Amino acid sequence: MLSFFTMNFWQLVVFISSLAPLGRAASGNLTFPPGFRWGAATAAYQVEGAWNQSEKSPSIWDKVVHEYNHLIQDRSNGDVACDSYHLWKRDIQMAKELGLDFYRFSIAWTRLVPNGFSNAISEDGKNYYNNLIDGLLAHGIQPMPTLYHWDLPQRLQDLGGWTNPLVADWFADYARVAFSLFGDRVEYWITINEPTMVCELGYGLGLVAPLIKEPEVGKYMCIKNIMLAHAKAYRVYEREFKDRFNGKLSLANHYVWYEGETDSDGIAAELTRQFQYGLYLHAVYSKEGGWPPAVEQHIAENSRREGYNSSRLPAFTQEEKALARAVNHYSSRAVRQRRARVPAAQSSPFSGNFEFNVTYEGRPEWKKGRSFWFLINPAGLRNVLTWLKTRYGDHEVIITENGYSDVPDVVNDDVRINYFREYLTQVHRAITEDGVNVTGYTAWSLMDNIEWVEGYKSTFGLYQVDFSRAERPRTPRKSARYYASVVRANSLDVPEPQDIIMINGASQMWTSSMRIFVLLMALFTFRNT
Ligand SMILES: *[C@@H]1O[C@H](CO)[C@@H](O)[C@H](O)[C@H]1NC(C)=O
Ligand SMILES: *[C@@H]1O[C@H](CO)[C@@H](O)[C@H](O)[C@H]1NC(C)=O
Ligand SMILES: *[C@@H]1O[C@H](CO)[C@@H](O)[C@H](O)[C@H]1NC(C)=O
Ligand SMILES: *[C@@H]1O[C@H](CO)[C@@H](O)[C@H](O)[C@H]1NC(C)=O
Ligand SMILES: *[C@@H]1O[C@H](CO)[C@@H](O)[C@H](O)[C@H]1NC(C)=O
């Protein structure tokens, strides 16, 4: 079961909607607007290794991989991973080889402030991130740090982690340390990466660290606290650093596009979107703040029916609402209303929602693989972008993750190239046809790394990493050369390999997983509260 739900969750899958050659996307001008920025991303736990070196303390992932190693598909761990803690110079060189405008990495809370609390800063931790940031800037590459990419200090988890309301202050204190040390050189900060993953998977389904199965109550406590953590960190920056550094901050959210077949399914689809991303947007981007009203009402009614005294979704106070008011896309799901609720234990953001009568499935025209959850619908990304604009107004949007996973040994990764081209074509259309202000795109990932519970079996890297060798050599895949030429040209109109392997022609496709990780980031610098 674990494996099923894990797969279901992680493999936001994508089958290209036609097996016919994708070829070049529509002819015409496929150049991105001047100033469009290109990046690639990693996350601390997935690449750094050195889990117990220097003063670093254990994170919730260190605990999971060591104490619940059977939950990791290949029983691996991130103790060494890509060894980026030692090989950061090579990482910068790779970013340079690709011609990136920015490199998105994350700061390990446990490395910078090993106590979890910000009473002591690790010198080694500070030096590591200073070296990385300065090294990037020396090559003209902007650092884009994420403060939290899922690696909570275990000490804080022992105190309740994201369900303890005090965590918002702990996070803001840690954020202050990072802003004060690195803020002079950072233009874009990401506070929290994909809170939906943290709360739905970590505290709801219990499939990732910290493995807490609390879909009815714990998940919502996490969501509220994580939104407040973001808000408090944002306010710290605004009050104490904005004047000096003038950077921008955002959450990076995660989006699956949902659409309904009939009118009533359409209503369910919209409710689904409100559940899956409105919960993480409304507090920040809506006029009134707080939770999306339809979601709030729904959970309150369910809670009442279940005999709870108050809603399982904790309310915001007026003060908290004011504090929080200030985008990420995966695959698509059709929404169908059905008679019985999906049991809490079985619903996931990709199969159904136990709070109301709904299940999610693919459409026939979204081609499926042998694994039924593989669906490809590149247009879903464009739909998400226009939905965000329609719902929450015209904001700057940065796609903070988008990538494709394959088996590790494929170096001539034409399928990945195709994937990038298809999704980037949709981004281009959102910009040029729908007027969505997308200003940057981030490929996931710069290099192969430990893919959380999937271990090293599924790899997203533009660069292949040989994990069997101590030196962890990195080798550019064909997609790295493709991406570098797109970046250089600022356009999808680039010479490309003629021998693109089609999905139905590539035997490795059937054993590989395909995913989109598109995180969109809307920056909330626009609102006067
Ligand atoms: C192509 O599109 C880009 C970005 O929208 C624009 O700046 C450029 O002028 C266009 N080029 C031509 C030849 O139309
Ligand atoms: C750090 O962890 C490794 C295993 O990854 C272990 O071999 C080593 O002894 C540990 N070092 C310290 C100082 O605990
Ligand atoms: C919860 O509801 C019960 C029954 O209505 C009531 O006796 C109790 O005081 C309530 N508790 C709280 C904390 O409101
Ligand atoms: C689910 O939908 C059916 C039919 O529309 C309805 O009769 C039932 O009450 C609903 N169940 C819940 C729990 O909302
Ligand atoms: C997009 O957002 C950026 C950053 O806020 C802004 O400078 C630019 O003018 C915006 N572009 C459009 C077309 O709105």
Structure description:
This is Beta-glucosidase. Belongs to the glycosyl hydrolase 1 family. Keywords: Glycosidase, Hydrolase, Signal. The chain has 529 residues and is of the alpha/beta class. Helix 16 (414-432) links the parallel strand 10 and strand 11 (438-444). The protein has 2 domains: 4-19 and 30-497, Glycosidases (TIM Barrel, Alpha-Beta Barrel); 499-529. The protein has an 8-stranded mixed beta barrel with strand order 1-2-3-4-5-14-10-11, surrounded by 5 helices. Strands 6-7-9-8 form a 4-stranded mixed β-sheet. The chain has a two-stranded antiparallel sheet with strand order 12-13. It has 17 helices and 14 strands. The relative contact order is 0.16. Helix 9 runs antiparallel to helix 10 and helix 15 packs parallel to helix 16. The protein has helices spanning 2-10, 44-47, 60-67, 84-98, 109-112, 123-138, 154-158, 167-182, 195-205, 218-240, 242-245, 263-285, 293-305, 318-324, 379-392, 414-432, 478-489; strands at 37-41, 102-106, 142-148, 188-193, 248-254, 257-260, 332-337, 352-353, 358-361, 397-402, 438-444, 463-465, 474-476, 519-522.
Annotate the secondary structure layout.
Elements: H1 2-10, E1 37-41, H2 44-47, H3 60-67, H4 84-98, E2 102-106, H5 109-112, H6 123-138, E3 142-148, H7 154-158, H8 167-182, E4 188-193, H9 195-205, H10 218-240, H11 242-245, E5 248-254, E6 257-260, H12 263-285, H13 293-305, H14 318-324, E7 332-337, E8 352-353, E9 358-361, H15 379-392, E10 397-402, H16 414-432, E11 438-444, E12 463-465, E13 474-476, H17 478-489, E14 519-522
Parallel strand pairs: 1-2, 1-11, 2-3, 3-4, 4-5, 6-7, 10-11
Antiparallel strand pairs: 5-14, 7-9, 8-9, 10-14, 12-13
Helix pairs in contact: 4-6, 8-10, 9-10, 15-16, 16-17
The chain binds 2-acetamido-2-deoxy-beta-D-glucopyranose (NAG) (5 copies).
